Structure formats: structure tokens, C-alpha cells
Amino acid sequence: MKLTDLNGSFQLNNGVEMPYFGLGVFKSADGNEVINAVKYALKANYRHIDTAAIYDNEKGVGQGIKESGIDRKNIFVTSKVWNSDQGYENTLKAFDESLKKLQTDYLDLYLVHWPVKGKFQDTWRALEFLYNEGKVRAIGVSNFIIEQLEELQTTAQIIPMVNQVEFHPYLQQKELFQYCKTNGIQYQAWSPLMQGRIFEIEIINKLATKYNKTEVQIVLRWNLQRGVITIPKSVKESRIIDNAKVFDFELSVEEIEMINGLDRMERIGPDPSNFNF
After folding, report:
1. What whole-number distance in Å separates Cα of residue 7 and Cα of residue 18?
2. What pTM was computed for the model?
3. Positions marked catalytic
4. From the annotation, which residues make up the binding site?
5. Which domain of life, per UniProt (predicted)?
6. 32-91 pLDDT, tens per residue?
7. CATH of region 9-260, choose from 3.40.440.10, 3.40.630.30, 3.20.20.100, 1.10.260.40
């Protein structure tokens, strides 16, 4: 694994190169706020934008990409099918609606947002169809734990290429991380900054002082050195630029282990094993 710059990528199990650093747009309001955030990120040399149907800002993301002037094929775009749209036929319709809003004729990555019991296998079958039709370059899941990944694979023809999950110093899900690594499923983090709680962690504070970096930059660098794709969210241009300044230093093996040791199995978001879908 080599970390180079903002344009660097990790190779998925189907050979597609996925940029390991991107912009998340969860809770970014549709319209000018998300349009500008996308434009700020692309201007700063980001080439990976992560959205979802439930974020209700795909239209703005698509507009931001269009207004950026950057060729669509040079931008890695992810979206996700929401729980109420799951099932085979509904997923295909939801996918077409996402394409329309994003003003594109394909996605780079399409994810099953949550493992809705009794539906996610049919939803996955729809993603396999879209992949085989060439409408999406890679398919994956989000918020799947080991048991759900194993259940999925009893009927799946294609193994997921990505699993996007809650991942931060207090929740590392080490068994799931190892399972994905063993099975060639790329790990991706959401909520890497713990909704700001990383600023309360003394070890992170000390490392930020040592490297003359922010706590945010320390945690994002830790993500990347663990081999985890990360998509920090911001709508402020200065913060979007600062978030990406993680390629001019390297945490030591010992420092990585120090952060690894902070794991408390403590969630900020819902638990996929008992979430009310």
C-alpha cells in the first residue's frame, strides 16, 4: 500500500481504482451549499465524491460536478440505495432516479445503504444486474456486519467490492475489518471524526502537536495508513483544503498502534445488528 497524494487510490477486487480520499456530503444541504462544497473539493484536486439518495442532495452534487468543468470520467462518484427503495425492481428504479439527479449515465460505485432484513439479497441482485450491464463500475454495501455479509454471500454471484461502515478511534470493529481484508472487500469509513469528539482524545492532541497538524489530519492519516478509504464531510472551502493536507507526514508503527488501542467498540451511529429499518 502506497500513499502518494490526493489523487492516489486503492484497487478494488475487480481492478477498479478507487480514490482513497474523498468528500462526504452527508447533511450538506441541496442547492448552493452542496454545489459549492463539491466545487471547492474538485478545485482542491479531490476526485471522489460520496453521496446517497437519502441525503437528498444528489441534484446539487450533479450540478456541482457539472459547474466544476472537470470531465465526469475523472471523478469517482458514489451513491447508495435507501432502505425504503430496496428490493429488486425498486432498486433499479431508485438507481435510475439517482442517475437523473446526478446528471450522469453511470456511477463509479453503488452501495446498499443498510442491510434491510428480507430485502438486501434482492437488492444486491439488482446491483449485480447494474454492474453486469455496465451502468456502475463497482458495487458494494454499507453498514454490513460479518453475519450479514455471510448471509449475502449465500445467494450473491459477485462479492461486494466495498463495505462502508462507521470507523473511528473508538469504533474499529477489528473482526469485521479482518473479515473484509481476508475476503478482498475494501473498508471505507464514515464518521471518521466522531462528530468532533476526536478533539477530546489526549493521544490525538499530542500527535497533532508533535507533527504540527490538526487532530483531524492525524485521524485521517491514521485511516489511510490502516488502508481505509475516508470521506470527511465539510462545506467550508478552507476546511476541505485543510482536511486533505495529510500527505506530507507519516505516523510511525507505534503511533498507529497507540490509536488502535483507543478502540472502545463505541458507536456514534445506529447499530446494524438491531437498527430499526
Report:
1. 10
2. 0.97
3. 55
4. 113
5. Bacteria
6. 999 999 999 999 999 999 999 999 999 999 999 999 999 999 999 999 999 999 999 999
7. 3.20.20.100
Domain boundaries, the chain: 9-260
Residues in the chain: 277
Distance CA 133, CA 158 (A): 14
Return the ∠ at Cα 90 (arms to 58 and 166), rounded to 5°: 55
Identify the three-state secondary structure at position 10. Answer: strand
Q: CA–CA distance from 185 to each of 119, 128, 180, 248 (Å)?
A: 21, 16, 5, 28
Extract the annotated binding site for substrate: 113
Average pLDDT value over all residues in the chain: 97
Encode pLDDT of 121-147 as tens digits. Answer: 999 999 999 999 999 999 999 999 999
Q: 187: Cβ–Cβ under 8 A, 6 or more apart, which residues?
A: 163, 165, 167, 177, 180, 181, 226, 227, 228, 229
Cα distance between residue 199 and residue 217, in whole Å: 11
Amino acid letter at 51? Answer: T
Residue 250 contacts residue 162 (beta carbons within 8 Å): no
- Alpha-carbon distance of 190 to 162, in angstroms, equals 12
Q: At 46, phi and psi to the nearest 5?
A: -65, 150
User: Which among 23, 50, 26, 36 is positioned nearest to 243, based on CA atoms?
Assistant: 23
